[in-house]
Amino acid sequence: MNYTYEQYTESAAYLRGWLGGFVPQVALILGSGLGYLGDVVADPIAVSYADIPHFKASTAPGHKGRLVFGTLEGKKVAVMQGRMHHYEGYSYEEVAYAVRVLRLLGCTSLIVTNAAGCVNTQWQAGDLMLISDHVKFFLESPLRGENLPQFGPRFPDASHLYTPALQEMAAATARVLNIPLRRGVYMYFPGPQYETPAEIRAARTLGADAVGMSTVPEVITAAHCGMKVLGFTLLSNMAAGILDQPLSEQEVLDAAEAAREKFSKLVLACLGQL
Ligand code: HPA
């Protein structure tokens, strides 16, 4: 199925009805552990995904499933508390649907965060990583199907999906805050099973530093419609086969909780400079 331009504009019109002239500038899609930032937005207007025409619910643990508009670090934001994942049964187009709606509402930048497995053996679980680029092979694109030229071209350039100037800003901000920040390549895997040790060795050979099950569809869609993108990963666990222990969701959630303070400090400081 492909959404029509009219469906995107219907969702945007519904949300404008709640916003009373408020125009968000920055969209935030917050992964495991950082969703609480949606709770600290000033003058919040919260709308459940379930109430927005054409939106899908978010079913993953720790994902609330609502959009929160308001002010954070002095910026007008739209925070997605909870994202959709392909493994929940959604198409990539559905996963990225909200990004285009937020673009229509006025957002010109997107900050994405996620938790991911650490592939780079020089690094450690608990480290933070700025996403410089990604690898996504084989699977469908969120842009598959009829192109909607109102959003962008049929064959968009993908040389700089993660806006270089924002990467430099984030690296400089991390230095000032004295928060160690790695920079590397995120490789997308669809999940929901974690990767096999052989897949992780393959990922490493292909240039990946981290592996995860989110972010990439939203980033492709955001860049296609001209948004600037800044992406952060919490390396919540060493990827499969590196340590002699099984991966678990609990490990990921615990790591997200443990990193929450430094992670949110960094993300908020970067938001303030957008
Ligand atoms: N693999 C994929 N996704 C993840 C991981 C992982 O090891 N950790 C957190 N999300």
Mind explaining what this structure looks like?
The protein has helices spanning 5-19, 92-95, 97-105, 164-177, 197-205, 216-224, 249-272; strands at residues 26-30, 42-48, 66-72, 75-81, 109-118, 128-135, 181-188, 210-212, 228-238. It is an alpha/beta fold and 274 residues long. Strand 7, helix 5 (197-205) and strand 8 form a beta-alpha-beta unit. The protein is globular, with a radius of gyration of 17 Å. The structure holds hypoxanthine.
Topology:
Layout (H helix, E strand, L loop, with lengths): L4 H15 L6 E5 L11 E7 L17 E7 L2 E7 L10 H4 L1 H9 L3 E10 L9 E8 L28 H14 L3 E8 L8 H9 L4 E3 L3 H9 L3 E11 L10 H24 L2
Parallel strand pairs: 1-4, 1-5, 5-9, 6-7, 7-8
Antiparallel strand pairs: 2-3, 3-4, 5-8, 6-9
Helix pairs in contact: 1-3, 4-7
The site of hypoxanthine (HPA) has 14 residues, from β5, β8 and β9.
- The ordered string of helix (H) and strand (E) elements is HEEEEHHEEHEHEHEH
Strand order of the largest sheet: 5-8-7-6-9
Mean pLDDT across residues: 93
Instruction: Please estimate the helix content.
Output: 25-40%
Strand content: 15-25%
Number of strands: 9
Report low-confidence residues grouped into runs of 5 or more.
none
Shape: globular
Radius of gyration: 17 Å
Chemical compounds bound to the protein? hypoxanthine
Number of helices: 7
Structural class: alpha/beta
Q: Calculate the terminal CA-CA distance, rounded to whole Å.
A: 35 Å
Could you describe the largest sheet, including whether it forms a barrel? 5 strands, mixed, barrel
